[in-house]
UniProtKB/TrEMBL annotation:
<comment type="similarity">
    <text>Belongs to the prephenate/arogenate dehydrogenase family.</text>
</comment>
<dbReference type="InterPro" id="IPR045865">
    <property type="entry name" value="ACT-like_dom_sf"/>
</dbReference>
<dbReference type="InterPro" id="IPR008927">
    <property type="entry name" value="6-PGluconate_DH-like_C_sf"/>
</dbReference>
<keyword id="KW-0560">Oxidoreductase</keyword>
<dbReference type="InterPro" id="IPR003099">
    <property type="entry name" value="Prephen_DH"/>
</dbReference>
<dbReference type="GO" id="GO:0070403">
    <property type="term" value="F:NAD+ binding"/>
</dbReference>
<comment type="pathway">
    <text>Amino-acid biosynthesis; L-tyrosine biosynthesis; (4-hydroxyphenyl)pyruvate from prephenate (NAD(+) route): step 1/1.</text>
</comment>
<dbReference type="GO" id="GO:0006571">
    <property type="term" value="P:tyrosine biosynthetic process"/>
</dbReference>
<dbReference type="InterPro" id="IPR002912">
    <property type="entry name" value="ACT_dom"/>
</dbReference>
<feature type="domain" description="ACT">
    <location>
        <begin position="294"/>
        <end position="361"/>
    </location>
</feature>
<dbReference type="GO" id="GO:0004665">
    <property type="term" value="F:prephenate dehydrogenase (NADP+) activity"/>
</dbReference>
<keyword id="KW-0057">Aromatic amino acid biosynthesis</keyword>
<dbReference type="InterPro" id="IPR046825">
    <property type="entry name" value="PDH_C"/>
</dbReference>
<protein>
    <recommendedName>
        <fullName>Prephenate dehydrogenase</fullName>
        <ecNumber>1.3.1.12</ecNumber>
    </recommendedName>
</protein>
<dbReference type="Pfam" id="PF02153">
    <property type="entry name" value="PDH_N"/>
</dbReference>
<keyword id="KW-0827">Tyrosine biosynthesis</keyword>
<dbReference type="Pfam" id="PF20463">
    <property type="entry name" value="PDH_C"/>
</dbReference>
């Protein structure tokens, strides 16, 4: 691949362009909003000038409803040897492409499983896809050259290719991406009219659950409009679980000891099912989830504190596997939770104490 055209210079499109440009590929940028390609170009993602002739690969990073028309337009104008989209829904755009008379042999649907709450070119990062699954949905009609270009793109972005059938992908993301977004928003919505006293009690749990509720609503309307059926199926199953959970909690209010015990048993079953499901979520580098031990350290809210604690952990020869920060309400301090290998936990605790850090159990 020597040349590429990225259509749609938001978070994903610009991140792709940054990764391609870093490898010396000439990238042309296009967007319905002319300001966004200029911004992306200023970040080093490529040029907002139109290509002189057909590019090797066109990457379509537009909302799902616009994927098929964009691909058909590129194919009819002969602007690219291959077209690949990076939308979060795969089945409907492919069917719309067929309806519009598009050429499936020169097109491949894909979905990099990466993102963040912020959107737009200024949120882009060429390392966004590193180590992340990148779903490819080839069909029997897909030309080998197109598949090879897609694999090259995934390699350049340092992602991990995963081949799936389009509708299977849509059912999967309904469960692991689209439904969590709605649930996060539903929980966060309960805070809108909550008492100030209750909101002041927000801790790490509510922050974790509502983190993705900060996402752009218009973007999610476009995504959910292209995959409503599978998402509704998951939510229907969840609704059944919620109904049962509500009945169990009501039973725990009963004066009847047997009903209270039955309700508690049902709640325990839900929590244990949650444990089992959480255990299936891939851990570091896609491996099975590891059991880490937490070393909690009190830090002041001043510049350089995080860098200093990481440096001290490095001097102790301890690798930080994960990190969480819980901010203290109304205090200029916070609690940093350092997740490490259990064997390394006492080593890290001792080393940090020696360097003056306050360790919390």
């Amino acid at each position: 691949m020597r040349t590429a055209l990225v259509i749609g210079t938001g978070l994903i499109g610009t991140s792709v362009a940054l990764a391609l440009s870093a490898r010396g590929i000439r990238v042309h940028l296009q967007d319905a909003d002319p300001e966004r390609p200029r911004t992306a170009a200023a970040l080093g993602a490529g040029t907002d000038e139109s290509p002189d002739g057909p590019v090797d690969l066109a990457v379509i990073a537009v909302p799902p409803a616009h994927i098929a028309p964009t691909v058909v337009g590129l194919q009819r104008e002969g602007r690219a040897r291959a077209c690949l989209d990076v939308g979060s829904v795969k089945g409907r755009p492919r069917r719309e492409l067929v309806e519009l008379g598009g050429d499936l042999s020169r097109y491949l649907g894909s979905h990099p499983m990466a993102g963040r709450e912020r959107s737009g070119p200024l949120a882009a990062d060429e390392t966004l896809f590193e180590g992340r699954p990148w779903v490819l949905t080839p069909t029997p009609e897909t030309d080998t050259e197109v598949l090879n270009l897609a694999l090259e793109l995934v390699s350049v972005c340092r992602a991990v290719p995963v081949v799936m059938e389009a509708d299977a992908h849509d059912r999967a993301v309904a469960l692991v991406s689209h439904t969590p977004q709605l649930l996060s928003s539903l929980v966060a919505a309960r805070l809108e009219d909550a008492d100030d006293a209750a909101v002041r009690l927000c801790g790490q749990g509510i922050r974790d659950v509502t983190r993705i509720a900060a996402s752009e609503p218009r973007m999610w309307i476009e995504i959910l409009s292209a995959n409503p059926g599978p998402v509704a199926d998951v939510l229907a199953a969840l609704a059944a679980d919620l109904d049962g959970t509500v009945r169990a909690l009501r039973a725990m209010e009963s004066a009847d000891e047997a009903k209270r015990a039955a309700g508690a048993s049902d709640i325990e079953a839900v929590l244990r099912r949650g444990n089992a499901g959480r255990d299936r979520v891939p851990g570091k580098h896609g491996a099975a989830p590891a059991e880490y031990e937490t070393v909690a350290v009190l830090i002041s809210d001043t510049p350089g504190e995080l860098a200093r604690i990481f440096a001290d952990a490095g001097r102790a020869g301890v690798n930080i596997e994960d990190v969480r920060i819980e901010h203290a309400t109304a205090r200029q301090a916070g609690l940093v939770q350092l997740m490490v290998d259990p064997v390394a936990a006492p080593v890290l605790s001792a080393a940090l104490r020696e360097r003056g850090w306050s360790i919390r159990q």
